[in-house]
Amino acid sequence: MTAHFSPTLIAAELPSEEISPNPFALPLTYDLPFAQNVHDMWSVTISHDEVMLEKAGQPGQSFPIEAFEGVVISVNDAGDAGFVYAVNLVHEVLDLTIPLYSAYSEQDILSRWRNWGQVLGLPVLVEEPDGSYSHPFHLLGKLAENTPRPQRPELFAHMRASGIWPVVHGAA
Fold first, then answer.
1. Where do the structural domains in the chain lie, given as residue ranges?
2. Which end of the chain lies in a sparser environment, N or C, as judged by fewer CB atoms within 10 Å?
């Protein structure tokens, strides 16, 4: 699509209201909560393979899901309101970062984060204090790399030989 697209603000501010679209209801369309008036309202449509952004009275622009880096979880200070917990679909162009979930309670944040990543087929990422993103499972090493694990009998034999797994004599 060749439409001119220059959002001035999509996810650069904290939302004044909570948003919670359902990742299992794709395709879905919702308004982004940053507009001061109806003429500045952005609408986003998310499907399994693309994201469409539209502004009132202007042609929309679509972006393939693969153009996004991943689904990021972040926590932001909201002053007297405490914290805002957010899940965003991030793009290397920061203006194209799409809020997927935000709330003042951390109750559902982890499940929303995992669900959006799974449904969109994108990696789940964590926002670091410096604003960069990292993969949260890099600390798990071989497990995160899908390294083959030993079969159970082999594993149990190794654990028994090393003294980790106690051998109980007389029990069958």
1. 23-136
2. C
45 near 51, Cβ under 8 Å? yes
Whole-prediction pTM: 0.67
Task: Give the long-range contacts of residues 73-78, CB within 8 A, separation 24 or more.
Answer: 73/109, 73/110, 73/113, 73/124, 73/125, 73/126, 73/127, 74/126, 74/127, 75/106, 76/14, 78/14, 78/104
Cβ contact 113:124 at 8 Å: yes
The per-residue pLDDT for 152 is 53
Phi–psi pair at 38, nearest 5 degrees: -65, -25
Contact 15, 42 (CB under 8 A): no
Q: Which residues contact 128 (CB under 8 A, 6 or more apart)?
A: 134
pLDDT tens readout for residues 20-48: 889 999 999 988 766 555 566 788 999 99
Q: Name which of 48, 52, 49, 46 is nearest 7 in CA terms.
A: 52
